[in-house]
Design goal:
The structure holds 2 protein chains of 2 kinds.
Chain A: H1 14-20, H2 29-34, E1 46-49, E2 54-57, H3 61-88, H4 92-113, E3 118-119, H5 124-138, E4 151-156, E5 159-166, E6 171-172, E7 178-180, E8 185-187, E9 192-194, E10 199-201, H6 206-238, H7 240-246, H8 249-276, H9 281-286, H10 306-315, H11 347-369, H12 373-388, H13 399-424, H14 439-445, H15 458-477
Antiparallel strand pairs in A: 1-2, 3-8, 4-5, 5-6, 7-8, 9-10
Chain B: H1 7-15, E1 17-22, H2 47-64, H3 69-80, H4 92-112, E2 117-119, E3 129-134
Helix pairs in contact in B: 2-4
The chains are: A mainly alpha, B alpha+beta.
């Protein structure tokens, strides 16, 4: 999680970095087949490198462009302009330039590789618990079922803040959190998704991002100023044209710096304003705390004066990552249900269509797994399941089963998505077949410790099927 | 109701009963949990005990996220060393998280395990919930 600034930035091949950063636990390949690390089963659209230490967004093309621009411009500066400046003015110039460059690169890498503050998705039990709370607060659904309002209001510092329910992550988003559609994650204190940095900017990497753009502004201005100085000094001796001929790189540097300065300095200024008022880009764009919205509308998160806001943003405590990337997936912990729906469409329709889509898969899966036994189980459940009926699922003894059923449906869906993600992410080594890790936890959650190799245990198939039937019953009652 | 359920159902119902204590956002984005006593725990534990546990956790998290001289110093020092200092030492937040883990373990050993409850560390749930897991073998819960 904590990276030194000297980490290689090139896209690491999974196996290559494995040997470089190997720990005693990583080397035995046979062990890796069975026990996966949590980053390998992560539901968001992120790329992981160096065995989960580095986390970036899926699209990283623009990030490489940023790197190239900075490296090339600085490289040309040090190679062509610095010798002249060091000998004719002072060697402090390349020294300061060097320090600035290292700081810029360090901050860029830190901002790009750090987890921005991704909120892990709710476990199936939590999701079920929240569903239950929403259902009870909204009363029994009558004819013409309407989806319950998925917002909660909280009073923070005298301001009413609405907490929205995230359908993908199945949580009520904390204040200031937002769901990034590019990365498909909820991020704490979400600022924006920065393609230049190749990552979201959130609570955990905002200071790195800010320091990056601030130091980059200084570096750009520094290079611009000294390249111009270099050209002027040379042209004093030999004339402008021959000066440009002697040092052609300077032209390129000036052009790059000239166009960068406006955008980067502007961005630094904008973020300085945001930090001093303790707002995120997201809030500023929406005008959440703008006085134009209404009298008495103020930012409840601001500490009052800009100094405290600054100190809090840049020097405040750095919270640890909430997604335990390098931890091992425990066989008996339930994995979060993943229903990745990109848009915020009508929830009930979304849910039902998902369920409908996964139904055939589920039935075919259970047929494969089970034998004659599931059919028997089905008929025996006819009685109790029908009693659940249209009543609200507030019966305590039936809830875990229901939630498991519901989660099983979702888990089947996530299995498909998991495959999807696994295909997109290049880090999976060839010999690892994409086993359905998400399908495991439900079975194990019932008290059977199902391992991937033991998935065809008849007892667990029974329980899986029972739950799937119950899950279907719950949906049909809705 | 119980008689129509098979043995497997009872077992899974007992193992899987969890009570979640959600976050309290009334003080902003700091990590704080609701001290409202959940109805499902009424027969299980003492209200006072529950409130004390949650309040202590809240205090510990507040200590982790506190803005003060110490955190500023740590932040500035980290910035000056380009954050490489965290290769050698832990952040203040991490130190407090360890303290919290120890506290939770103590509480489990002394108070909750004898009552058949298990308090989970919120960090394992992304600091979203504090969950009380009830495992009472084959008995039907409440």
């Amino acid at each position: 999680m904590h990276l030194g600034v000297e980490e290689p930035i090139r896209e690491c091949q999974y196996n290559q970095i494995c040997t470089h950063n190997s720990s005693p636990m990583d080397t035995p390949h046979t062990k890796k087949k069975k026990i996966k690390r949590k980053w390998q089963v992560f539901q968001g659209r992120n790329k992981f490198y160096c065995n989960g230490r580095i986390m970036m967004a899926k699209q990283t093309g623009v990030f490489y462009l940023t790197m190239v621009l900075i490296l090339v411009t600085s490289g040309l500066f040090f190679a062509f302009d610095c010798p002249f400046l060091a000998s004719n003015l002072t060697p402090a110039i390349p020294a300061i330039g060097g320090v600035l460059f290292i700081f810029v690169m360090g901050m860029l890498l830190r901002a790009s590789f750090t987890d921005p503050g991704v909120l892990p998705r709710a476990t199936p039990e939590e999701a079920a618990d929240i569903e239950r709370q929403i259902d009870t607060t909204n009363g029994p659904s009558g004819p013409g079922y309407r989806p319950p309002p998925r917002t909660r209001e909280v009073l923070i510092n005298g301001q009413t803040v609405k907490l929205k329910y995230c359908f993908t992550c199945k949580i009520f988003r904390p204040p200031r959190a937002s769901h990034c559609s590019l990365c498909d994650n909820c991020v704490e204190r979400f600022d924006h998704h920065c393609p230049w940095v190749g990552n979201c900017v959130g609570r955990r990497n905002y200071r790195f991002f800010y320091l990056f753009i601030l130091s980059l502004s200084f570096l750009t201005i520094f290079i611009f100023a000294f390249v111009i100085t270099h050209v002027i000094l040379r042209s004093n001796r030999t004339g402008l044209l021959s000066a440009l001929k002697d040092s052609p790189a300077s032209v390129l540097e000036v052009v790059v710096c000239f166009f960068s300065v406006w955008s980067i300095v502007g961005l630094s200024g904008f973020h300085t304003y945001l930090i001093s008022s303790n707002q995120t880009t997201n809030e500023d764009i929406k005008g959440s705390w703008s006085s134009k919205r209404g009298k008495g509308n103020y930012n409840p998160y601001s500490y009052g004066n800009f100094i405290t806001n600054f100190c809090a943003a840049l020097c405040g405590p750095l919270p640890p990552s909430l997604i335990d990337r390098r931890g091992f997936v425990q066989p008996d912990t339930p994995q979060p249900a993943a229903q990745t729906n990109g848009s915020g469409a009508c929830p009930s329709n979304q849910v039902q269509s998902h369920m409908a889509a996964t139904n055939p898969l589920l039935h075919s899966q259970t047929v494969i797994l089970g034998g004659g036994a599931p059919l028997q189980a089905k008929t025996s459940l006819g009685g109790p399941c029908s009693t659940l009926g249209p009543s609200q699922p507030s019966l305590p003894s039936s809830i875990p089963g229901l939630s498991c059923g519901g989660e099983l449906m979702a888990l089947r869906d996530s299995e498909i998505h998991c495959h999807h993600h696994l295909h997109h992410q290049h880090f999976i080594s060839p010999e690892e077949t994409p086993s359905p890790p998400a399908a495991l936890p439900c079975a194990t959650h019932l008290g059977h410790h199902v391992h991937p190799a033991q998935l065809f245990d008849p007892a667990s198939q029974d329980s899986l099927h029972e739950d799937s039937v119950r899950g279907l019953v719950k949906l049909s009652s809705v | 109701m119980a008689e129509t359920h098979s043995l497997q159902d009872l077992r899974q119902a007992a193992v899987a009963s969890k009570v979640f204590v959600q976050r309290d956002y009334s003080s902003g984005t700091i990590c704080k949990f609701q001290t409202k006593f959940p109805a499902e725990l009424e027969s299980r534990i003492d209200k006072q005990q529950f409130e004390e546990t949650v309040q202590t956790l809240n205090n510990l998290y507040a200590e982790a996220e506190k803005l003060g001289g110490r955190s500023y110093l740590e932040g500035c020092l980290a910035c000056l060393t380009a954050y490489t200092i965290f290769l050698c030492m832990e952040t203040h937040y991490e130190k407090v998280l360890k303290k919290i883990a120890k506290y939770i373990q103590e509480q489990n050993e002394k108070i909750y395990a004898p009552l058949g409850l298990l308090l989970t560390d919120p960090i394992e749930r992304g600091l979203r919930v504090v969950s009380f897991l009830h495992h009472a073998g084959l008995s039907v819960p409440w």
